[in-house]
Amino acid sequence: MTDEIALERPSLAFDDRLSLVVGMLQRFSWEQTASDETGRERIELGGRITIDDAAALWKRISETLVHVEGVRQVELDLSRIQMIDGACMALLVQFRTELRARKIGCEFGGGSEEVRRIVQLYGGRKKLRQTRPKRRPVSAIEQVGAATLGVFGEGKQILDFMGRLVASTWHVLRHPKSLNLRDVGLTMERAGADAAPIVLLINFLIGFVMAYQSSAQLKQFGASIYVADLVGVSMTRELGPLMMAIIICGRTGAAFAAELGTMQVSEEVDALRTLGFLPLPFLVIPRMLGLILVAPVLVLMADAVGILGGALVASLTLDITTTSFLIQLQSAVKASDILSGMIKGVMFCATIALISCQQGLATSGGAEGVGRRTTSAVVSILFALILLDALFTVLLGVFGI
Amino acid sequence: MTKTMISVRDLSIGYGRTTLLRDATFDVERGDIFVILGGSGCGKSTLLRHLIGLETPIAGAIRIAGIGAPRLEGAAPRFGVMFQSGALFSSMTVGENVAFALQEWTHLPVDAVTAIVRAKLALVGLEGAESKLPAELSGGMRKRAAIARAMAFEPNLIFLDEPSAGLDPISAVELDELILALNRNLGLTVVMVTHELESIFKVGKHCIMLDRESRSIIARGNPQQLRVDSEDPRVRRFFNRETSVPQWQ
Prior knowledge:
Number of strands of chain B: 9
Largest sheet of chain B: 6 strands, mixed
Strand order of the largest sheet of chain B: 5-6-7-3-8-9
Low-confidence stretches of chain B: none
Distance between the termini of chain A: 88 Å
Mean pLDDT of chain B: 87
Number of helices of chain A: 14
Oligomer: heterodimer
């Protein structure tokens, strides 16, 4: 069997046409002598074999491997090779390994001094490690099981972290000087003051859209004035704190997880411990405290601009004056609505700090680990926020707040 | 004052279900430069993490003179540690890094702290680097700054994790000289993890060699002597850079 055989084959399929092109581009020779009665086969390679020929060589190898039944020994004659590079030698070595795995003997023969050196470099070890057994495919049920166990594992770790955080808070209460006040202020600035513009804009638009969408419906029933109730109650009780928390999660939660994660993988957390600082009182509690302190302010701001957005729509599309809107709002929104929203905001922010710091400090495995933990922190926080929101809505309803 | 600085008895360490070292017993004398050596993955750095109290051993006891079991619990540092990467706080300047623990654990006025920081940085050959950020320093400078930070509290014991790893030959030699100078002039006890042979022979007074296969200490003594006297093929192979993989010629 020689090179020409491949060219003569009547082939129309795409794969065959591709192999035709590959065969035409081939710059080396591959002459294969059919196996004799003792099962010995000889392959003579020649010419220059470089990385550009690797595709053609691999195709030859794959074809040969398909038709090796009855062959007991393959001799690869390298004596006509003018030059071969490492990539192509790696393919020949793999060819030899595959043959040996099928209990077919394979030896490299001949070759110039240079070629023998490459053989020595890539295949010189007496015992070549067999190719790794293929990984067993994991079934869907196993994957669901593993993911479920993973969720429980994560939950357990967060609970464990919460316990340690309570103990650390007790430590800080007994030794107030151990609190890292600098980070409290820094967190308040970054998570509070710096986040204010985006919190204001998003909540203004939320109030605006909500009023706009509901105005058409309310108008039909002549109940336009109730747009104040709708916007007021939903902003103060639900959307104000929730939207604020979602923004804080994306801005600050991700930043906490990435910051602490980077500190963890670059041994800064360990260095901190050897200098006598405990990571929880020094890194986590200040961040949590900073977020908890800014939460009520951000919620109040979110409530105010959301209602402002609603009032704007009311005056533009429903002909309700700002005064009428405010009078209606006064009767609709109670102090308890605002208070419950603020409590929610504080709880949400505490949750963001808890999960993001826990995920950050649990980071391992370099830059990839930081990215994984940051993503995981944001997803876990969003899930926890929605869960907490539902829980709070029910609980506050039960207690009539 | 007892002669022994660190005493380790029947120590077993590992992580998860993997045991890296079983029943290890050794002592580190005061004023020694004690090297923990061995091939990759034998548990050298893990042993160091146990010695400084970052990890809890599976079994056994570690005692540090004047401290007891190493525990890190919200108190001024009693010994210095330099991590492999230096682990300087990236958001602080070099000066702030060195001053950090001093400000927290002492009641020194700011100008006194500044004077100490300046002196510590001069000690490691980093005069005038106070206002630089760690990212602006070379690898060798970062490690020296980390030594300055570890020395801030005048410890009599310092742990170094792979001090010369990843450094160019000149920076590595300079760092070795610094370690020798600190040991000679201040009587500082140094415990270091390394597998750089030049460094081991230059600074090491005593050493233990860990082995991954047997999970034990396979040699102890002076590195120079071990190189000549040891009959253990694993030790000879390590010190004479003999490889077990075939030569590619």
